[in-house]
Amino acid sequence: MQHRQTQPAFSARRSVRRFTTGMPVSALALAGLVATGLLTPAQAACTHMRVGADPAYPPLHWYDGHQMQGASVDIARRVLDELHIPYEVRYLGPFTRIMKLAERGELDMVATLKKTPEREQFLLFPKTAALSNPVAVFQARDRAFSFQSRQDLVGHRGGITRGNRFGGDVDDFIRASLEIEEADTPESNFNKLKVGRIDYFLTGYFVGMAFLLKRSDEASFVVPPTYLADTPNYLALTLKGACADRLDAIEAKLAQLKKSGALDEIIKANLARWRSSSLARESTAP
Do residue 157 and residue 121 come from a single domain? Predict the structure, then answer.
């Protein structure tokens, strides 16, 4: 079976009736949706899964200029290969575009992201997480402040990367209690943090460390040992996509791979890959 990885955007699909839900959808329930006309038979038939991911979130997922890489992508490949589901992983532009395509049903899987009520309106999440992605509070070393709980962030200026969500009640707390600026990339946030335009940067621990490794700038920043949250990331299926009926099979395979330790091995391998990649070394090149 051949799986191709290409760059062009997905072609537009015939529009379907909008159907949103925050409840888990099983294969049996999806069959009922087909019967009632909320999903068309063509939409429910999964013959080729279209997979997208954030291109700027290493080492979990990133675009190396040729193809998508990362632990999330490798976990998606492993699951789909073992389930014998044909698929195609594509670079589709920034994360905000990925989410718009997902909402319209113009791709079938997002690998990986956190579960939030907003995303549950157009994405289906299995019970088993693909990986854990703790949210860290990065600070400039020369302006670090004590952080032991979320309340310690109140009164300080923070930054996040546009489109990032942290799940649970963390997003509600950020909206209600914190002074937060959005920037387009982690790189921009680290630059703002270094010159004092913000006091902290909230991002996944792994992606934050990956970008500092790329910058060769780890000494300028610190990460408190307490995380803001330790939230899971999931392989999510799009409700309007053609493969929503594979949710139960993907859940079963993820549970099996997690129990065997295979998911942890994939994460470790991608951390090592990022450290040795040309992207991680490019800032030190003459």
Answer: no
- The number of CA neighbours under 13 Å toward the Cβ of 38 is 12
Note whether residue 222 is domain-resident: yes
Looking at 188, 213, 230, which one is the last position of a domain?
230
Sheet holding 61-63, edge to edge: 56-57, 61-63, 68-69
What does the DSSP 8-state code read for residue 38? Answer: S
Domain check: are 89 and 187 in the same one? no
What digits encode the pLDDT tens for the residues 174-208? 999 999 999 999 999 999 999 999 999 999 998 89
24 and 126 both lie in a single domain: yes
CB 123 within 8 A of CB 239: yes
CB burial readout 225-245, b (16+ within 10 A) else e: eeebbebebbbbbbbbbbbbb
Helix runs in the chain, H state only: 27-36, 41-44, 71-82, 95-104, 170-177, 186-195, 205-215, 247-260, 262-276, 278-281
Other C-beta atoms closer than 10 Å to the C-beta of 113 total 29
Q: Which tens digits make up the pLDDT trace of 252-276?
A: 999 999 999 999 999 989 988 887 7
- Shared domain check, 195 and 275: no
Check if the beta carbon of residue 208 is closer than 8 Å to that of residue 139.
no
Per the structure, how many domains does the chain have? 2
Is 214 part of any domain? yes
